[in-house]
């Protein structure tokens, strides 16, 4: 019984991290109807920025509250900038081209980011590209056990990741449904041409959405890295694809759907691993995805949209 | 009957030419290996082009089908390696068994292609891409967990049976098949689906069946390519069939121009030879093995960058949907000569005969 | 004899009734019109008839066969061909290839054991399994014939090409055969769509605003042409049109839709005088029409 509870807890904690990444996919899909394949790789870049800044600060500074906050903010800011650049130079010129062109660009961008980081390069003593070797993320949050109920162990990292994730999601929900920017976002999502005619600065809304999604991904990435502690350039592909799966399961373009889908995926994976199928872990997410797409292609909360004839 | 003879003409030409090449290159193992790599990549690119270029679906899991063919073919050859066909000399018997394992590997891959093609009935564009990708990953995970396939270490000791002749004969087959499909009514149906699925369906094209068939044909040849690959590498490891391999093939067909078979061939040759050539030149000039090694690493990000740059500057790739023979001095006159203008509708008085 | 019969078809999207209790009967030699203001449900009616939508209730019967739940390509094979309001040609293909694609439905010569006529005959007798098997096997053989370039295959291809060229010629597009569809002028694109629809050997032709975007002269010519097609191909024709004068001038029977409801059926003169029609649709234009 306590075993089960422990797995549920771990699964939910993992799910919240997927959720943060999935939200980025869903937001971008909402405004652009494009699956941003490079999203997971932006997250990976964020993790490396966090890694570098934590190393730079040194162990004592980076594990103070202020230090940790700074690590998060720095990496989120850098990723927002990266997201802006990608949108501006790779996606915007293709916005009115066939969807396939944008899809191929996104795939190419993902490939470019993840494999550039596999290279090692430094410029005047400063490491520019980290290389393929996995690294341990600095221990900015020291592992502590906060709660033991029977055999169930709750660690501080789990609590922190759930709390941070929930806070970020709450903020996003507020932004989308309670602010003028959110209203503009929803208008662009509905029909970006008409929104433009109504005086909404479409380019700016889309750029901001990208920046926001990328920043969320960076936050999620650091939470993930703190928990899993191994950082490597291809982590973005794995985590990104799973988060994407979660977003599709929930119904892509739907904010609470992404969260529910992520929690489902986190739980399913945890159970598969927990009950002896760890080598199957990566197949589970895709099996789950294919099943959902076959039986309910619009996802749990999605709506069916048919092409107008 | 005369038609069949004409149909087999490309092979009548290819067989002696390839046999001669095989003899000529007997002393140049490096060249042979290079040609095999190029050949396998051509087969992969041309077959993927049937799905992505002609039918307009977007599969990014081609390596998964290749893996199926490689493992099934490899296991089959290992099992049969002790046996021979009694009335044939050993070399011939080996090649017959080799051909058999290629076909079986391809057939099993085609079966998987059928299974993956099925969801494509309901999915479009990016969703389908993800499913094919996911499928490729699932295959890899399944293989890594199967004792028969050597788990994570892979299959070793697959008899080395691929020759320049057999590999390039497969290339000729796939190119001929791709061209004939393209030029037939089946090909036109595939192109129609690419152009406008709803209109194709309304014009009586069973879009579902055609999409699945294109998946089946493409995965069959991916499986055969896998078999060819397995029989010259001798070791089949799961790491050969990752997302990266699929992407490599996607880059080839996008660079060549989605929908152009000759474009896929040219891009496959170029993108295979370039890093190989660069590597050997670097090694020869600097004598620095580490530097040559770098080429392999730089290849990946460059592929990504190439996709992005192509989409921004030349989304139609090298050839667009055209073929080499549609261009320049090779150009055939496409338009048939117009029939007599008398019967044209511009003159309402004329009564054209009933078309039934 | 009735070739297309729609019986009380209703199409509901969530709470919205896009089409309710729609009935229609098109026989060979008919030239009927379907009119109504924007959003009246005309294109929805077309989509229900051609299998794009499955009607919520009611029935669509083509040449005696019930079409509910059939896919668009099956409805097409049963004898219903259509054009689209927002032209949907295969843009990158040549005009000739556009028509050849549609010849697919009829690509086996009558002498073939897998001929369309034979398969349709079996189907009409209710023997669906053998019909399906014959069709599937024929299709499978077709692939191999194409791969080996058999003489039978080449004869079929020549037959298709000849037929497609003749259809282009009928629609006055023979000189455009080798040109990409997207490069044709607008009016020719519309005509190419009709040629393509004809290539599927339909019994009833559904035209969704065939004259949209054409000038007056082109429109007049097109109408003459449509009438001629009906006679030469022994078709029933149903067309949606916005230009009232045109519909009134050419159609023998008109069905008027408004908000998904059928508000009038009759000859142009009857419809013209119907107070409901005048109120719903002709209000502004009625004077012009009376004149």
Give me a quick take on this structure.
Chain B is mostly helical.
Cα-atom radius of gyration of chain C: 20 Å
What's the total helix number of chain B?
Answer: 12
Radius of gyration of chain B: 22 Å
Strand order of the largest sheet of chain C: 6-7-8-3-9-10
Q: How helix-rich are the residues of chain C, as a percent range? A: 40-55%
CATH architecture of the domain at 1-79 and 202-291 in chain C: 3-Layer(aba) Sandwich
Total beta strand runs of chain B: 0
- Low-confidence segments of chain B, ≥5 residues, pLDDT <50? 330-356
* CATH homology group of the domain at 1-79 and 202-291 in chain C: P-loop containing nucleotide triphosphate hydrolases
Number of strands of chain C: 10
First-to-last CA distance of chain B: 29 Å
Q: Which oligomeric form is depicted?
A: heterotrimer
Explain the overall architecture:
The complex is a heterotrimer of chains A (309), B (356) and C (291). Chain A has 309 residues and is mainly alpha-helical. Helix content of chain A is 71%, strand content 7%. Chain A contains eleven helices and six strands. Chain A has helices spanning 2-32, 39-62, 65-91, 99-116, 156-178, 180-190, 192-197, 202-228, 235-250, 255-274, 281-295; strands spanning 120-123, 126-130, 135-136, 145-149, 152-155, 230-231. Chain A is globular. The two termini of chain B are 29 Å apart. Chain B is mainly α and 356 residues long. Chain C has a six-stranded mixed beta sheet with strand order 6-7-8-3-9-10, with helices on both faces. A four-stranded antiparallel beta sheet of chain C has the order 2-1-4-5, with helices on one face. The radius of gyration of chain C is 20 Å and the shape is globular. Chain C has a domain at 1-79 and 202-291: Rossmann fold (3-Layer(aba) Sandwich), CATH 3.40.50.300. By secondary structure, chain C is α/β, with parallel strands linked by helices. In chain C, a hairpin with a 2-residue loop joins strand 9 (253-258) and strand 10. The interface between B and C is large, with 52 and 68 residues.
Features:
heterotrimer, B: 356 residues, mainly alpha, 12 helices, globular, disordered C terminus, C: 291 residues, alpha/beta, Rossmann fold, 6-stranded mixed sheet, 4-stranded antiparallel sheet, 21% strand
């Amino acid at each position: 019984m306590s075993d089960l509870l422990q797995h549920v807890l771990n699964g939910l904690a993992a799910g919240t991290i997927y959720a943060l990444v999935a939200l980025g996919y869903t937001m971008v899909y909402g405004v652009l109807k494009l699956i941003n394949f490079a999203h997971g790789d932006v997250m990976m870049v964020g993790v490396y920025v966090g890694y570098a800044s934590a190393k730079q600060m040194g162990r004592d500074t980076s594990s103070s509250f202020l230090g940790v906050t700074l690590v998060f903010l720095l990496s989120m800011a850098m990723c927002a900038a990266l997201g802006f650049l990608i949108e501006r130079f790779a996606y915007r010129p293709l916005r009115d081209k066939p969807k396939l062109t944008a899809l191929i660009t996104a795939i190419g961008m993902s490939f470019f980011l993840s494999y550039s980081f596999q290279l090692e390069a430094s410029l005047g003593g400063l490491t520019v590209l980290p290389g393929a070797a996995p690294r341990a993320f600095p221990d900015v949050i020291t592992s502590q056990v906060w709660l033991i109920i029977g055999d169930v162990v709750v660690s501080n990292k789990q609590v922190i990741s759930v709390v941070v994730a929930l806070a970020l999601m709450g903020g996003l929900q507020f932004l989308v449904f309670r602010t003028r920017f959110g209203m503009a976002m929803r208008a662009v999502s509905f029909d970006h041409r008409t929104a433009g005619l109504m005086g909404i600065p479409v380019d700016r809304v889309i750029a901001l959405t990208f920046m926001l999604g990328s920043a969320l991904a960076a936050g999620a990435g650091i939470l993930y890295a703190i928990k899993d502690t191994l950082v490597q350039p291809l982590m973005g592909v794995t985590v990104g694809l799973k988060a994407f799966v979660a977003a599709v399961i929930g119904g892509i373009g739907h904010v609470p759907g992404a969260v529910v889908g992520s929690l489902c995926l986190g739980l399913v994976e945890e159970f598969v691993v927990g009950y002896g199928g760890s080598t199957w872990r990566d197949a589970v997410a895709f099996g789950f995805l294919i099943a959902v797409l076959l039986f309910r292609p619009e996802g749990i909360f999605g709506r069916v949209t048919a092409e107008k004839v | 009957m005369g038609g069949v003879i004409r149909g087999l003409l490309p092979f009548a030409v290819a067989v002696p030419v390839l046999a001669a090449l095989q003899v000529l290159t007997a002393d140049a193992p490096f060249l042979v290996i290079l040609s095999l790599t190029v050949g396998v990549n051509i087969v992969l690119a041309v077959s993927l082009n049937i799905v992505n270029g002609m039918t307009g679906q977007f599969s990014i899991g081609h390596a998964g089908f290749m893996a199926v063919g490689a493992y099934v073919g490899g296991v089959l050859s290992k099992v049969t390696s002790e046996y021979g066909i009694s009335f044939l000399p050993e070399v011939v018997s080996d090649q017959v068994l080799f051909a058999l394992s290629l076909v079986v590997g391809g057939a099993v891959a085609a079966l998987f292609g059928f299974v993956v093609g099925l969801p494509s009935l309901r999915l479009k564009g990016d969703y389908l891409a993800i499913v094919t990708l996911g499928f490729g990953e699932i295959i890899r995970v399944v293989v890594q967990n199967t004792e028969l396939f050597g788990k994570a270490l892979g299959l070793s000791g697959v008899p080395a049976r691929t020759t320049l002749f057999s590999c390039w004969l497969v290339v000729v087959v796939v190119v001929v098949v791709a061209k004939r499909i393209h030029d037939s009514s089946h090909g036109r149906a595939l192109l129609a689906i690419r152009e406008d699925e709803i209109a194709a369906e309304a014009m009586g094209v069973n879009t579902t069946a055609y999409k699945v068939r294109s998946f089946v044909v493409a995965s069959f040849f991916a499986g055969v390519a896998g078999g060819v690959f397995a029989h010259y590498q001798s070791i089949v490891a799961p790491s050969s069939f990752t997302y990266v391999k699929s992407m490599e093939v996607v880059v080839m067909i996008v660079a060549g121009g989605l929908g152009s078979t000759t474009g896929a061939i040219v891009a496959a040759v170029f993108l295979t030879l370039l890093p190989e050539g660069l590597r050997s030149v670097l090694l020869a000039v600097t004598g620095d093995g580490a530097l040559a090694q770098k080429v392999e690493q730089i290849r990946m990000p460059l592929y990504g960058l190439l996709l992005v740059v192509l989409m921004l500057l030349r989304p139609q790739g090298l050839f667009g949907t055209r073929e080499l023979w549609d261009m320049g001095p090779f150009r055939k006159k496409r338009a048939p000569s117009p029939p007599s203008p008398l019967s044209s509708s511009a003159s309402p008085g004329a009564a054209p005969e009933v078309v039934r | 004899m009735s070739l297309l019969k729609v019986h009380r078809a209703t199409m509901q999207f969530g709470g919205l009734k896009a089409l309710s209790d729609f009935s229609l009967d098109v026989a060979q030699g008919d030239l009927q019109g379907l009119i109504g203001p924007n959003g009246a449900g005309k294109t929805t009616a077309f989509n229900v008839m051609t299998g794009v939508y499955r009607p919520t209730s009611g029935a669509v019967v083509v040449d005696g066969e019930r079409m509910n739940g059939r896919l668009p390509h099956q409805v097409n094979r049963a004898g219903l061909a259509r054009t689209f309001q927002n032209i949907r040609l295969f843009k990158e293909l040549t005009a000739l290839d556009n028509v050849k694609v549609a010849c697919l439905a009829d690509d086996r010569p009558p002498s073939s054991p897998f001929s369309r006529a034979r398969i349709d005959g079996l189907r009409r007798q209710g023997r669906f399994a053998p019909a399906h098997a014959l069709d599937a096997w024929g299709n499978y053989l077709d692939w191999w014939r194409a791969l080996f370039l058999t003489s039978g295959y080449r004869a079929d291809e020549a037959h298709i090409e000849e037929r497609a060229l003749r259809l282009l010629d009928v629609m006055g597009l023979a000189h455009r055969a080798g040109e990409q569809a997207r490069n044709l002028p607008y009016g020719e694109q519309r005509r190419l769509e009709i040629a393509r629809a004809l290539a599927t050997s339909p019994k009833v032709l559904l035209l969704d605003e065939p004259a949209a975007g054409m000038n007056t002269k082109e429109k007049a010519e097109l109408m003459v042409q449509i009438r001629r097609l009906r006679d030469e191909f022994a078709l029933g024709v149903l067309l949606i049109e916005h230009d009232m004068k045109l519909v009134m001038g050419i159609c023998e029977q008109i069905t008027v839709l408004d908000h998904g409801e059928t508000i009038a059926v009759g000859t142009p003169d009857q419809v013209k005088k119907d107070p409901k029609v005048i109120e719903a649709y002709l209000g502004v234009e009625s004077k012009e029409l009376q004149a």
